[in-house]
Amino acid sequence: MLPFRDKDHSGAAPERGYLPKQRRRTVRAPELSDELANLLFEGEDQDRVHGAWRELIATNDFRHRPLLSPAERVELSYSRLRLVNDAAGDATELALDPRRLAALHEWIGIVDGGLCTVASIHYNLFLGSLLDQHAGAGGREVSEFTSMRRVGTFLCTELDHGNDASALRTTAELDLETGEFILHTPTPGAQKFMPNTSLAGGPKSAVVAARLLIDGVDEGCFLFLTPLSDGGTHLPGVHVRRLPDRTGTPVDHCLTSFDRVRLPREALLQAEHGRLDQDGTLHSDLGSARKRFLHAIARVTTGKLCMSASTLGMSRAALAIAVRHSHSRHISGPKLGERVPLVAHRSHSSRLLDATATAYAMTFLHREVVAQWVGHTPENRAEAERLVAVAKGWITWQARAIAIEARERCGAQGLFPVNGISDLPLNIEGGITAEGDNLVIWVKAASEMVFGHQPERRRPSGVPLAERPLTDLSFLRDLLVEVESAAQARARIALRQGPAGDPLGRWNVASTPALEMVSAYACRRAADAFIDAAARTADPMALTLIEDLCRLFMLRQLAAHTGELLAEGLMTADHVRAFPDVIGDIVAGLAPHLLTLVEGFDLPDEFIAAVPIASGGRIGDEEDAWSTWNLRTSSSPEPAVR
Q1: Mean pLDDT, the chain, as a whole number?
Q2: Nearest Cα to 208, choosing from 158, 253, 246?
Q3: Which of 77, 324, 566, 590 is 20 to 30 A removed from 353 (C-alpha atoms)?
């Protein structure tokens, strides 16, 4: 642990809630922050995976533009999408590389939530689906989409069917005489809900999920490539109605329906889940319509990684802004005429340190989950998909909590959009709902894990319980496993003792402890990723910081469970009594390094300079302060729509 503690030279704790004079100097070490950034951003792969996107958001075209109207912000997002495409190099390679694709969202989400949405749809859900489910051995021609002559979108969710999308009602009936498909919206509830299908951004095509009907037989849901607009108008039979603006950065969300639109035979996206013979016979390697549908929309899993990454980047940006503000914002001190920075108050800095520890845990977990997904095999695919889903829920929920905390720590200044933080919590909300509502995907994971999961215990240490300190990372990790195991045991008992003959009633009884198990599992996996990151840390000072952050993270996760752990004989009474002091000691040691820790987030200087409260200023400092920042962020022309 760090030797720096909140005590004066006599060894006594200071009476006031601020740092003594000799400690008001913030510790800033560029080399140390570089080491932390190297850990957070994948070491030797940092430039390949993250470099292009970090450089992109540092350019003038990506400066914060808070004064634009909603319509202008939508157009700006599409203009920036084309700049992303220029920076991507080979768009096909990007769509097929989950690591670079997730990293793209991790950086662009910081500056433009709308861009994050349309990029995820275009590269992952649309282009990724086309590449994964090609037509024939020669593949599908996608150059008009990789060149951005046409923007891609994805239509699955319907007004009546969201998380139960497998029950969608849009149909694509095979005309056996012509070989064409007839795409149709049979009811108002079957309208596609919220796709970005307006005329903004230029000509668009969509991948549309619809029920394949062959000679009156419902073969399940498949995807169909469908042109939507061209030359400034929607194509015949395509009906689009703009939805009201939602919270967060605007996106051109619409209701979209089809009136017997004819599509050519090659519009059907085919793979092992379903191939259509010339005579209209469907062949599939998968036995059920549900499995075929899940295979058709398999890109949703990579989408979960992208949503996790976007909210991760947003929360780190919010935290970086709040930490910098806490160092530059001064308030009245305990002595007449004295001014002290906000960060001098433990009530302020400890909250930011807790959020920083969680942000590091989220980042390390995300890296591990992406690696697991990239390296999965057919045998462990289901387990990898579940881990992606659990991590998406945990990371996006934690991101929201961090962004809200960071905004609050900026006070009234944080309410002004020009300060770059007020939109971030709202943009994170979109990530919580997109690619599967968090609670729904956790319920699915919980139902699988009650009996199909075994918490990963490690070899007993052999050290008597009373001698295991609360600073021992392996001890804290063991306790997290016990929390996970106890929740699972409660869920199993509840399920077995639930009302007989009532499956929903039994699950209702078991769902609360089952969801607690999923939450504990996510925290434990984050702790494991944190500990593994510490093991990779070569620099001694960086290692000390990482280990203390990891301790703080795990202690905060365990705080609500000390009673149960004590009752089960897994902690001693002395452990419980020592809990607050151990946390306070760690916080005191980390406090002088708070700015260095967030500098490890590696945000471009250009981004920081464009945010007044992150760069030593504030709204209202001088008569011309607002105009100065407004000029700085809008002096370059907007990227033109091409």
Answers
A1: 90
A2: 158
A3: 566
**Which residues, in sequence order, are bridge partners of residue 223?**
209
DSSP percent split of the chain into helix, strand, coil, nearest 5: 60, 10, 30
Band of pLDDT at residue 30, cut at 50, 70 and 90: low
pLDDT tens digits for 459-517? 888 899 999 999 999 999 999 999 999 999 999 999 999 999 999 999 999 999 999 99
* CA angle (460 as vertex; 459, 461 as ends), nearest 5: 110
- Within 10 Å of residue 474's Cβ, how many Cβ atoms? 13
Burial of 145 (0-12, 13-18, 19+ CB in 10 A): buried
User: Which tokens sit at 268?
Assistant: 């059907």
Phi, psi (rounded to 5 degrees) for 210: -150, 155
Which carries the bigger pLDDT value, residue 608 or residue 2?
608
What is the residue type of 406?
A
Show the tokens assigned to 390.
């659990």
Q: Could you tell me which residues are beta bridge partners of residue 239?
A: 257
* Count of Cβ atoms closer than 10 Å to residue 373 Cβ: 21
Number of C-beta neighbours around residue 83 at 10 A: 17
CA distance 621 to 629: 12
Encoded amino acid at 595, one letter: L
- 572 phi-psi bin (left φ>0, alpha ψ -120 to 50, beta other): beta
3-state secondary structure of 484: helix
pLDDT tens, position by position, 383-411: 999 999 999 999 999 999 999 999 999 99
Element (H, E) at 276: strand 275-276
Q: What is the pLDDT of residue 1?
A: 57
Summarize pLDDT for 503-545 with one digit per residue, the tens. 999 999 999 999 999 999 999 999 999 999 999 999 999 999 9
Burial of 235 from C-beta contacts in 10 A (0-12 / 13-18 / 19+): middle
How long a stretch of residues is the chain?
Answer: 642
- Angle, vertex CA 150, rays to CA 90 and CA 259, nearest 5: 140
Query: How far is residue 251's CA from residue 194's CA, in Å, rounded to a whole number?
Result: 9
Q: Are strands 171-174 and 204-214 parallel, antiparallel or unpaired?
A: parallel
Write out the two tokens for 34.
């570089």
Residue 94 has pLDDT above 80, yes or no: yes
User: And the tokens for 364?
Assistant: 């390390």
Q: Which two tokens stand for residue 52?
A: 């292009």
Give the Cα separation of 607 and 603 in Å (integer).
Answer: 7
